[in-house]
Each structure stands twice: as C-alpha cells, then as structure tokens.
Amino acid sequence: MNRASRLLIALVLVLSFASSKAVAWNSIGHMSVAYAAYQRLTPAEQARAIALLKLNPLYSEWEKQLPAAASDADKNLYVFMIAATWPDQIKATGSGYTGNDNPPQGELATLNVGYSDKGMHKYWHFINNPFSQDGTELPALKGPSVVDKIGVFRQALATDETDLVKSYDLVWLLHLVGDVHQPLHCSNRISKTQPRGDDGGNLVTVDGPSKDLHAFWDGAVGDGEWKDYMKAVKVGAALPAPDASLAGDTKEADWAAESLALAKSDVYVAPIGSGVGPYNLAGDYTTKSEQIAEGRISLAGARLANLLKTALNCGTQACAN
Predict the structure, then answer these.
(1) Distance (Å, whole) CA 140 – CA 121
(2) How far, CA to CA in Å, does 157 sit from each of 115, 197, 247, 310?
(3) Residue 6 lies in a domain
(4) How many domains, the chain?
(5) Which of 4, 96, 114, 282 has the most other CB atoms within 10 Å of its CB?
(6) Per the domain annotation, does 111 fall within a domain?
(7) Is residue 201 in a domain?
(8) Which residues contact 161 (CB under 8 A, 6 or more apart)?
(9) DSSP 3-state of 108
C-alpha cells in the first residue's frame, strides 16, 4: 500500500469517527420533528419562519433541491424540514466552520451572535447527564449544553434582535428541540470500565451497520441525509399523536430529564450489558427502540410548535416581531 492510499484510509477513518459524535437523530429524524411541528403552525407563523430561513447562508443550496413542480406550500414545508439539519450540515469538511465536542475555555452559555459565529458548537447538541448502574462516582457536568442553548435561543427569538440573528436562533431551535428528545443526547453512563462515561453511547459497540449504540438510536426511524426529505415526510406523516398532557410541558429541562429517564429504563437494558460490547440489538429491543423514537419525535414536534408560537408571536394577520 502506497503512502497516498494510507493517508486516504486514515482520513476516512478520522472523518467517520468525527461524524459519529454529537449527532442526535439523523437527518430523517430531525426533519420528521420539523414536519410534525410545521403542521401545527398557522399560515402566519409558517410564513414568518420561512422569511427567517431565507436568510440562512445555505438557503439557495436547499432551494436547488426542491422539485420544480412542487407547490409553494410544499416547498416551504421542505425548506422548514431541511433547515432543521443545518447545525449538522456545518460539521461537514470544508463547511468553513470549526470546533469539536468540547467548549472553549470561557464560552458563556448566552453566546448568540448569529451567522458571524463560525463555530460548529457540537457541545450545544447534548447534555451529558451522568448516571451509574454500578455505583461509580459521577463527574460534574460541563456546559453550555443543549438545555442552556434552547433557553437562550427561544428567548432571543421573542425579542427585538435583528432578523439575521433570529434566523440563526431559529435553525438551532429546529435542531436542538429534536436533540433534547433523543435519550442518548441527555445521558452519559459512568461505570468502572468507563469512569469518564460512554459518551452518550458512542463508546458502546453494537453489531450491524450502526456500529455503536448512539448511532443505532439516531437511525431508529430510518437513515438518510438532508436531501432525502421526502423520506422524512413519510415518517412524519405516520407518527403517532403525542400525549397531550406531555406536549404542553414548555420546560426544556423537563424534556432532558425525560430523555435521561428513558436512557435508564429503555436504552441501557438487555441485551445492553455493563461493558463496552459488542451487543446484538435485533428483535424486541429494535422494535421497542423504534416505537420510543417515534413517540419522542412526535412529542418534540408538538413542543417545538408550541415554542415557536410563543417566540414568533404571530397574530391572525402578521407577526409582531
């Protein structure tokens, strides 16, 4: 094997590892959340959201992927769905954005300057709530986290910030509300074999194409990229109705607590053992994970819609902000 081939293989391995980190749901899951939310918005709220999304730097790229024969209403829906994947799109090599899973020293949770910020901010996608099944001492949490950033962005979206900043806030909210409903984005199992944690299941190996537990749950409702938005339309249209009593909960900290509870009760259970694997997840575990994912995505869509109705502050004729 020549030097060029070795370098190419090394690069592929590095990129593969990097792409597995800090991803909650894959593009299909995130777009399904957005689909569910969009159905609950009024025409005025939808129009305001689309006006903000047109300010995103990748809007023209998204628009190129829309079918020419689609109605304006359908095109707006597709853009809203695709926009939910933007915080993952900027992780791609050559995107012009930089960063890793760790926040730089001194970054404030309140950071919100809009598209001039060229950080990937991968650590905004999760909250490593630690728990242990074997009594191992738990580490302290480090932030800022997905819970912090949802709070910052939803508040800013409802103020007199510029539309450019609000556009940035909106695409992050479309994504992060989905993130916080993925159990493995709100948990970090601490154990004697992994005293620093399993990185939200990224360090637990499973059989099959997913390779790790985190990726398995990311793809619970299907695999695909942002250009596969029609797959997400089908998933979104088939989602179960969310529990009305839960959908009305507007506190992002509660959403994260629910995800942590699900990680304990339904993710880290047989056939997942106490070690690093590999584990075979076929059968009942796979079936139940899909059901849980569908329920969480449906609930995320309802809660996202409620959040946007308040933040966008739309009346019957126009949006006030």
Answers:
(1) 20
(2) 14, 34, 21, 9
(3) no
(4) 1
(5) 114
(6) no
(7) yes
(8) 169
(9) coil
Report the C-alpha gap between 269 and 162 in whole angstroms: 47
Is residue 142 domain-resident?
yes
- The yes-or-no verdict on residue 266 having pLDDT over 70 is yes
- Rounded CA-CA distance 81/233 in Å is 9
Would the pTM of this model clear 0.85, i.e. be above it?
yes
Q: What is the mean pLDDT of residues 199-227?
A: 96
Helix axes 163-179, 284-312, angle to 10 degrees: 150
Domain enclosing residue 250, as ranges: 18-97+116-312
Residue 280 CA: distances (Å) to CA of 39, 132, 193, 266:
37, 22, 20, 15
The token pair that represents 95 in the structure block: 């995107």
Helix ranges, 248-283 (H): 252-262
pLDDT by residue (tens digit) across 22-42? 456 899 999 999 999 999 999
Residue 14, C-beta contacts closer than 8 angstroms, at least 6 positions apart: none
Structure letter (DSSP) for residue 243: P
Of 57, 54, 83, 78, the C-alpha closest to 66 is 78
Query: Which stretch of 21-35, 87-101, 198-212, 244-258 has the lowest confidence by average pLDDT?
Result: 21-35
**Which tens digits make up the pLDDT trace of 139-177?**
999 889 999 999 999 999 999 999 999 999 999 999 999
Helix (H, G, I), strand (E, B) or coil at 19: helix
Q: What is the CATH number of the domain that holds 222?
A: 1.10.575.10
- Euclidean distance between CA atoms 106 and 229, whole angstroms: 38
The three-class DSSP label of residue 103 is coil
> In the block, which residue shows the tokens 């819609």?
305
DSSP state of 274: S
